[in-house]
Amino acid sequence: MMSARGTRETMPPALDAAATAAVTRPRTAPDRALLTSLAPLLEAWLPGRRWFAGKDRAITGLEPVSATELLPPGGSTPGLVHLLIRVRQPGPVTDCYQLLIGTHPALPPRLSDALIGTPEDGPLHGQAVYDALQDPRLCSVLLERLRLPGRLGPLAFSRAPGAAIDARLPARILQAEQSNSSVVYGDALILKVFRRVYAGVNPDLELPLALARAGNTNVPPPVAWFETAALTGEDGSDGGPATLGVLQPFLAGSTDGWQLALDSIAAGRDFALEARSLGRATAEVHTALAAALPVTVLRRVQMEHLTALMAERVESTAVAVPGLAPYRAALAAAYEELADLTRAGRSWPAQRIHGDLHLGQALRTSGGWSLIDFEGEPARPLAERRRPQPPARDVAGMLRSFDYASRTGGPDTGWTLDEQAAWAARQCAAYCAGYAEAAGADPRDDAALLRAYETDKAVYEVLYEARHRPDWLDVPMAAVRRLAAPAAAPPTPRD
Ligand SMILES: Nc1ncnc2c1ncn2[C@@H]1O[C@H](COP(=O)(O)OP(=O)(O)O)[C@@H](O)[C@H]1O
Ligand SMILES: O=P(O)(O)O[C@H]1O[C@H](CO)[C@@H](O[C@H]2O[C@H](CO)[C@@H](O)[C@H](O)[C@H]2O)[C@H](O)[C@H]1O
Q: What are its GO biological-process terms (predicted)?
């Protein structure tokens, strides 16, 4: 576990006496009475959250993992309780979720959208219980905790050496529906609070910390973070501490690559210079990760495992999205081609990578591109996400994103399908050329690997769109049709 550093400091004037008392008064035991009174409200509230992964299954029970007071609940002033709960649902694993629960004797109307409910009995009887991350005042309490490294019950707060945190920065909640919840403090810092929590260090802390220590500047360096003491693993084992949240610099004035790409399509501008520079930034991050963290070589056994996972994804997605079924065999051919190469003795270098790279994960500032959100594919077990993988997976993710941008922005501009494909091909070529400049190797030279990863990502997207944005389903389905007919789909073009 990363050790808590630093010493206690005097409290800033912005926090009141109640907050001062609470942050130094830990309460560690899971509070069953508290959860019992909250359970019916949470069971109704959780399925409506974008970050709740179990929307397709009924909740059969909630179990407390820990309940930690940050401000005493139940009184005449707002309270704040940090909760970790396991959500029981049919299926082999029970997910653990992080909730920050605000309590208020009379919830102000500005917080009405955050209301979870009002318990009819138990310790919070009559109090409004709400999502504390919607309340700037309670978000400030969390920032104050991060300013003061140390322990609070099972929670451990750490700060990067030399990092200064001004706890008076006003909090603003990012409203966009995301996999997690993020709070911006005064346009200077952003705190990502992980909602679904896994035993072990989250790559969204691990990789940016490793990159910061290696001097890489393409990723915002963690300023502070918090963890919980040993959490049981997904398989019931003792999985060790789990990362709960990461505070990092907010890149004010940045625009994400997705928006920039759509703007450039709408304005009829080319994006190739940006794509090229994004390719270079990706390669620089990969090079730094390979130097900072363990690397390996994937031989036959590992590649067979990898291609088996890809094939499994096709099968399970075809069950959930029947429109994919006719392409199953043709898609699997891309994975077979890789497996054939390994059987012939070919091996591939693997290293830690981003794992879910797309244009929305790239922020353009005046100083260049920054990459964010190193969590990897959120639905996969943490151990799998932390395994070294071929960097081509990230490259393929970005290539898919250029295809998405052209098919989303192109029709509004009146482009034909050929014009959309030509735009995407130009950006893919520029991105790969930029990558090659910085990495010394061109990802297009490994066409079988790139095609397998593009295929795997397109299949992932089919399920993602079917679940979250059915109107967008045809974007990855069009890619599936193209990738399933490789003779008609030329390899990624060169400049
Ligand atoms: N360092 C940052 N600076 C500016 N904006 C950021 C930063 N980190 C994240 N964001 C914004 O917050 C959004 C959510 O962050 P992300 O890490 O992708 O969270 P999630 O895991 O919930 O998808 C991003 O789409 C981006 O717009
Ligand atoms: O929430 P995350 O950023 O972790 O990623 C998920 O949501 C993305 C959509 O917001 C989704 O990305 C897909 O759509 C993008 C356009 O909205 C496109 O640029 C990506 O290439 C495409 O994969 C992502 O797959 C999903 O994991």
A: glycogen biosynthetic process
